[in-house]
Structure formats: C-alpha cells, structure tokens
Write a structure and sequence with these properties.
alpha+beta, Multidrug efflux transporter AcrB transmembrane fold, two-stranded parallel ribbon, 10 helices, 6 strands
Length: 318
C-alpha cells in the first residue's frame, strides 16, 4: 500500500511553459542587441563625465543646449538629486582629452551662471576603456569555468553544464533588458552581474543537492518525479532568500544615488531571474537529461512522471 505525501506543486509538468517564456525573452534580447546595441559607459569606451551639482531650476534641455554650444557633441544628460534634495546633472560626452573636457565644463558653468565649484570633470582614455572591457570578459570566463569545475567535482559534470546554461540564460536576458531600455552599462553593472551569478548558482546548487539526496534514497519514482519533489522541498527557502535579498536592493533602486541605482537595477532583475531559472530552466533540463540514462529511463517507463505526488521508501508498504 502506498501512503503518498501531500500533493506537490507540479512545477516540472509546466516545463514547456517555462521554456517558451524563456525562449521568447531570449529571442527579444538577441533581436534588441544588434538593433539597439548596448549603451556602454565611458569606463568602457572612453570619454568624459561631468557631474553638475546645485543646478537649481535648470532643465535637461537647457543643460543639453549649453553642453552642445560648448562643443560637446550628442551629450547624454541625466538629471540627479542628492539626499538634501539639491538638483544636478551628469553629462557624458565622447571627449578623451582632459584639457578639452575641463574647458567644456567651465564654459557650461559660465553659460548657465553656476557656481565655480559646481562641476566635477572625469575623463577616461580609450585605452583604459579597452582594459576594463578585457578584464571584465576575463572575470566572466574565469567565473564560468570555476562554476563548471566546482559542480563537476562536487556533483557531476551534467549539473555543471546545466548550471552554466541557466546562468547564461539569466545574463542574456539581463543584457537584453539593458539594450531594450537603453540603460548605461557601467562597471557597477558588471559587478552586479558577477554577484547575480553567485545568487543564481546558489539557488541552482540548493535544488541539485536536494535532488541528489532524494535520488539516493528513492527507487519507486522516475527521476523527474524526484526532481519535482526536490524543488517543492526547497521552494519556500528559495522564495524567502530571494524576497529578503530583493528588499534592500529595491530600496536602493528607488532611493539610492545614480551609482547605487545602476547596481540595483541589474540586481533586481537578476535576483528574480536567478530564482526562476533554478526552477524553470536548470531543474527541468537536468531532469530531462538524466532521465535519458538507462537506469532512469526504466524507472520512467515503470512509474511515469507522477510529479503531483511523491513517496519515500519509508512510506511504502508491500
């Protein structure tokens, strides 16, 4: 006689929906990237950033006109405000000569009748931008390689491959969001993406670890049934971890300065995607892959999916 546990949420029976949603988001990202491109910050492409503070009632159009009149072609102008409520602007232009950039800042200050110390000019050369880009790519490559090696040693190589697929899924969609909305990609965004890789990997490893434990003690269910039950066992933990992580990040997104908002925007999307991909991408891909092995193929033919209920050997009576 079989005494089943309470009915599980059948996550994996919805795997086609998860795959379709992810496919649509990835296709949108792949289309947006060549059409709109990424708006890289001056740290990557070189250029000048001028932070204007205490600008009073000056509008974005007035600031843009003043910058263009001073010789700054196609400036990117962002309005800002500090903790005291004072208005300001961050202006980015493709000027890599420090003297020319300083002169432009002085002319804008003079044209808008701002105080002498209201402009802070930062200039980055193209060579520095190339170096930042190179080191960022190396950081991503090393991180992905270490993830595969760790999971392959700790669990098995299939888990490592699937975990990286889930990570690439998350990163592609995040980059696509930046392309669609035209948000600037800065080193803070790269730092957020590397942090997101850690969060996403953590969620995935938690599920994989539970699957491993359950498979070792269960012989009366198909692999996909065990995987689905494992997701149910850690779902509340994943939900609580994601929610508690999102609270301070969303607070930074709405109330932080521009630097914090860059970091928080990527983190907000990444935390949600990381939790989703561990359940909707990594787990079903791994379960489907493992189920093709002869041992688990026989169990599937005998027991079917049955993802709604789960029993352990202790709950079975012959």
């Amino acid at each position: 006689m079989v005494r089943p546990f309470k009915k599980d949420i059948d996550f994996l029976s919805k795997r086609r929906i998860f795959f379709i949603v992810s496919l649509v988001l990835m296709v949108i990202s792949l289309i947006a990237l060549p059409l709109r491109g990424l708006n890289f910050g001056i740290e990557f492409v070189g250029g000048t950033s001028i932070a204007f503070s205490n600008t009073g009632e000056i509008t974005t159009e007035q600031m843009r006109s003043a910058v263009e009149a001073a010789g700054g072609e196609t400036p990117i102008v962002q309005s800002t405000s500090d903790a005291g409520g004072s208005n300001g602007f961050i202006v980015r232009v493709a000027i890599t000569d420090a003297a020319e950039a300083s002169k432009l800042g002085d002319e804008v200050v003079s044209a808008l009748s701002l105080s002498d110390n209201s402009a802070e000019v930062t200039t980055i050369g193209a060579a520095w931008g190339d170096e930042v880009t190179r080191t960022s790519l190396i950081a991503f490559a090393v991180a992905l390689a270490l993830i595969i090696i760790y999971i392959a040693i700790r669990f098995e190589y299939k888990m490592g491959v699937v975990a990286v697929i889930a990570l690439l899924h998350d990163l592609l969609i995040i980059i696509g969001v930046y392309a669609v909305f035209g948000r600037e990609v800065t080193p803070n965004v790269i730092a957020a993406l590397l942090t997101i890789m850690g969060y996403s990997l953590y969620d995935t490893v938690v599920v994989f670890h539970r699957i491993n434990d359950n498979v070792a003690t269960t012989a009366h269910h198909s692999f996909i049934t065990v995987a689905n039950h494992s997701i149910n066992q850690v779902f509340i933990r994943t939900f609580n971890t994601t929610l508690t992580s999102l609270v301070p990040v969303v607070a930074m997104l709405f109330f932080g300065g521009e630097t914090l908002k860059d970091f928080a925007f990527a983190m907000t999307i990444g935390l949600v995607l990381g939790a989703y991909s561990s359940i909707g991408i990594a787990s079903p891909l791994y379960a489907l892959w493992k189920q093709r092995e002869p041992k688990y193929k026989k169990l599937y033919e005998k027991y079917g999916e049955g993802v709604g209920t789960f029993t352990t050997a202790e709950n079975l009576q012959d």
